[in-house]
Specification:
The chain is α/β, with parallel strands linked by helices. The chain has two domains: 2-154, 3-Layer(aba) Sandwich (Rossmann fold); 188-309, Elongation Factor Tu (Ef-tu), domain 3. It contains ten helices and 16 strands. The strands form four sheets. It has a six-stranded parallel beta sheet with strand order 1-4-3-2-5-8. Strands 11-12-15-14-13-16 form a six-stranded antiparallel β-barrel. A two-stranded antiparallel sheet has the order 6-7. α7 runs antiparallel to α8. It is elongated, with a radius of gyration of 22 Å. The chain starts with a strand and ends with a helix.
Amino acid sequence: MSHLYKLEDAAPTRPSLVTIGVFDGLHKGHQTLIARVVAAARAAHYDATVLTFHPHPDVVLRGITDRYYLTTPEQRAALLQEMGVDRVVTYPFDDAARQISATDFVDDLLEHLNMKALWVGADFAMGYKRQGNVAFLKAYGEEKGFTVEAIPLVAHTEGDEVVSSSRIRELLAEGNVDTVHDWLGRAYAVQGKVVQGDQRGRTIGFPTANLDVWSQQIVPAYGVYACWARFNGETHMAVTNIGVRPTFNGENATVEAHLLGFDKDIYGVDVELSFEKRLRGEMKFNGIDALVAQIQQDAVSARTYLQSVS
């Protein structure tokens, strides 16, 4: 699979079936649509091409500055590759992109992707002032030689709720990683390089890997989690703390993982943490001894849970 940031770099060798969307998080609703796109592309001997956007249009249009993303562009592309997509184009969305006309945008897709089919949601619209709705696209497709398939909104449900990226953001803010796991079909994960912290964990017998997580990606609510830590082709059990470390009067939130049974220097290494279970909320302890006793219990709880699901 190829992951591109410019349409001009595509250079396809066969026609493309294209779908367009942000697909942040790639939850089960997204997965259902992508599976249909890939199957149709295979049947037609086309490339399955996903055109997505970064920054997220919400971030640009609403001026969002807080953590908002469920996936980095690279995580999203890797997940789409696992789903069988042949090409991902992460299109830069800014004010200039917002003002491109629907005809100019479609012409770019035709020129650079050799687009023969376009699959969009039933309420889809593209281009300046959303002029490129489904009716417009179908008429333009007849003129330009591509087909348009309007797909009913994919509303995957879990229990009584509709799966959506916005609701997943709310669940993560609550620390509800169990429900998020169900809605994504996988554990929620963040990535980051291990950077040097204050090394206080090492002094109390629990060295941690302090992750420099992308500042725009959501992290679960403050608390302690059982996680898998993946790096350099290895997978390790971990107990992870997210928060400001109130026992030490901390002010800046950190993501710190204590890898169980592992004590090597991994500064500068890229680590992925998948959040499997929330163990407890953030707590302030009356002294180091109480904190150490709780961390010991957290480590036992994390190991017990991770062993039960491995």
